[in-house]
Amino acid sequence: MGMAKQVGLEFGSGLIRLVVVEHQRSGERTLVSVDTYSLPEAIDRDGRIVDEKVVVQTLKQWATQRKMVGASLVFAIPNENCQIAWLKLPDVSGSELISVARYKLKKQFPRMSDRAVVAVAQPNGPEHESILIGAERSLVDERANLILKAGLHPVGAESEAQSILRVIDGHLKGSGSIPEQASVTLVHIGQERTQFMVVKEGRLNFMRTVKVGHERFETLVSKTLECSREEAQAHLFSPNSWLLNRRMIASMNESFEPIDAEEPMESLTKEFRRLIHYFRSIHPDRSYAGILDRMILLGRITTLRGFAPSLADLIGVRLELLNPLVGLQIALESDGFLSLQQQSSMYTVALGLAQSPYGLVPTQATTEPQEEETNEYLWTRQSA
Questions:
Q1: Starting at the edge strand that comes first in sequence, how are the strands of the sheet with 318-321 ordered?
Q2: Residues 55 and 68 occupy one common structural domain
């Protein structure tokens, strides 16, 4: 039975996350490795690379250790560096389709660069609306060239929103509890920023990123307990820690005194309320289309017990948590599996990238990429 391994790479706030998923021809997918590398000296808080050599060396070492040299890899582009729209396109193809898509995206997003990389997907056929995506070319080229230097084979780039939607697509379709016209809001709370994505009828309808994340909770714990950031994270995300009464971070084994988290909690809920009010304002008064009645919450902070119920009470919206490992077979060592179970939500983007359909030709992971595949990827970047 043929199978192929694909790598998903996310550039986070001062770190990178790498996930490897093995795809079988039967359609089964197996998660074979997950890794996080903290590189605060090489990647800034916005995920921008400031020391390329350190990142390349880290990726090289990872590829050698995991025996993934030359493996196909898909990397993420932050949502704030992308323009996404659903639009009707004429029945054309090739470079003409890209030109029309660029024109329409530029018309809708005047600030988009003339040199942006543009991609078009037509999941329902050319007779229906297509999804148009524009991304900052310099960012795509920088990350692709860095990956090539590390001995890996970049076969595609996606917005974070696309990869998250891939992970939750089966969850949305399988729940059966969502009215056909209802809006479902995906909220991905990262360390430095929170991403809001509204999905309607299975399509990304609205997207916004705000610079508020769980870093404020970490800073609060670090200052209060006078400990390092790593120790603060260990306290905050311990199975013994709870968020009580919507504001107090407490330890069930009394490893620290309760900490008042009203300030970071209020900062986060303020952004949620602002999104809800703004989304309602862009729809006709009392229109059902403007109602956000269900949110799916993602991110490491969701592992803090009591956080999701507290947030739901404060904003008055039903919140659900999602396990991004659903549908995957797991082939990790016991320690790695237990650690992943507690932190799976933080790997959502990388998991979505590793499950994307690009470059899935049954080959051995250690084989050098074929020249035609590399040229195809470079041609795609240059022609777009």
A1: 203-210, 194-200, 183-189, 292-298, 318-321
A2: yes
Note whether 301 and 191 are within 8 A (CB). no
Q: Is the same domain home to 325 and 185?
A: yes
Query: How far is it, in rounded angstroms, from Cα 346 to Cα 344?
Result: 5
Number of neighbours of residue 364 by Cβ within 10 angstroms? 11
CA atoms within 13 A on the CB side of 92: 11
The conformation of residue 40, written as its DSSP 8-state character, comes to T
> Rounded to an integer, what distance in angstroms lies between the CA atom of residue 292 and that of residue 181?
11
Residues 103 and 168 in one domain: yes
How far is residue 350's CA from residue 145's CA, in Å, rounded to a whole number? Answer: 19
Q: Are 238 and 343 in the same domain?
A: no
Residue-wise pLDDT for 81-136, tens only, equals 888 888 889 988 888 998 999 999 999 999 898 888 888 887 777 788 888 889 88
The pLDDT, as a whole number, for residue 122 is 78
Same domain, 14 and 54: yes
Q: Are residues 99 and 235 in the same domain?
A: no
Cβ-based neighbours of 85, under 8 Å, separated by 6 or more: 104, 105, 108, 109, 131, 132
d(CA 211, CA 88): 32
What is the tally of structural domains in the chain?
Answer: 2
User: What CATH number is attached to the domain comprising 19?
Assistant: 3.30.420.380
Shared domain check, 51 and 25: yes
pTM for the model stands at 0.81
Q: pLDDT by residue (tens digit) across 255-308?
A: 889 999 999 999 999 988 888 888 778 776 655 555 676 788 888 899 899 999
SS3 188: strand
- Are the C-beta atoms of residues 197 and 165 closer than 8 Å to each other? yes
| 254 shares its domain with 153 | no
Position 21, amino acid: V
Residue 248 lies in domain: 215-260
